[in-house]
Amino acid sequence: NDRLRKTKVVASLGPASWSEEMIPKMILAGTDIFRLNCSHRRGGDFERVYPLIRKYAKELGKDVECLGDLQGPKFRVGELAADPVPLVNGEVLEFGISKDDNDNIRPGRITMKPTLEQNALVRGCSVGTALLIEDGLMEVKVVEKLSETELKVQVTRGGKLKARKGVNVPDIEIDCAALTAKDIEDAEYLLQLEPPCEYICVSFAQKAQDLQELIDIMDRLKVPQEKRPKICPKIEK
């Protein structure tokens, strides 16, 4: 009996599962909440899928909720100059913001593209800061800060570095807004759905102000209190 379960089953919808055939099957299988990943919001897919969720939940007599997951700022290494670069334990190399389109990852140097968020990440690092790459599979530690955009790091956990892998810095607060321009656009869309979605997730939330940014959008759009989604800060570090 689904009503006796205290744990909610959250199912992420994507191209493999958001068809008219699959959505009712997922509801009958026990889905309580459908997650709409705003990283993949494009081409009218959400506009097509959201009414289907509400339609089949009503037809099947199930209490199904929807969660809009904002993408948040992205922190990734850049492109490769050639083949994947081996990172060897103990090796000291450069880690910095790309100076131009040709300043790509190569032996002895790791680069990130010059976005506001990634500039803030490098700027916030100091000697001893650990940077985790590809979900922590690799790790480098700052041994010298050369400038606001350039570091020297030592490899503490090696591996083979490929392009566009994620970077996390658990020990610092990155001085950037939690909501990007895309997040603001996606939040405005989610907040104007009818019926409203029940939850909105804020990615990489670090402080109370990050959640206030979403509340400010609700205020600007004059969303009534009874229609405001619950805000879920995601713990991602």
End-to-end distance:
36 Å
At the fourth CATH level, what is the homologous superfamily of the largest domain?
Phosphoenolpyruvate-binding domains
CATH fold assignment of the largest domain: TIM Barrel
Structurally, the number of domains stands at 2
Number of helices: 5
Strand order of the largest sheet: 6-5-9-8-7-11
- Report the principal-axis shape: elongated
Alpha carbon gyration radius? 21 Å
| Relative helix content | 10-25%
- Per CATH, the architecture of the largest domain is Alpha-Beta Barrel
Question: Class of the largest domain in CATH?
Answer: Alpha Beta
State the total count of DSSP E strands: 13
| Beta-strand residue percentage | 25-35%
Give your account of this protein's structure:
- InterPro entries: Pyr_Knase (IPR001697), Pyrv/PenolPyrv_kinase-like_dom (IPR015813), Pyrv_kinase-like_dom_sf (IPR040442), Pyrv_Knase-like_insert_dom_sf (IPR011037), Pyrv_Knase_brl (IPR015793), Pyrv_Knase_insert_dom_sf (IPR015806).
- Residues 5-237 form the Pyruvate kinase barrel domain.
- The two termini are 36 Å apart.
- The strands form 3 sheets. This protein has a 6-stranded mixed β-sheet with strand order 6-5-9-8-7-11.
- It is elongated, with a radius of gyration of 21 Å.
- The chain has 5 helices and 13 strands.
- Helix 1 crosses helix 2.
- The model has no long low-confidence stretch (mean pLDDT 94).
- It has 2 domains: 10-72 and 178-233, TIM Barrel (Alpha-Beta Barrel); 76-168, Beta Barrel (M1 Pyruvate Kinase, Domain 3).
- The protein is 24% helix and 25% strand.
- A hairpin with a 4-residue loop joins strand 7 and strand 8.
- The longest helix is centred in the first third of the chain and has 16 residues, at 45-60.
- By secondary structure, it is of the alpha/beta class.
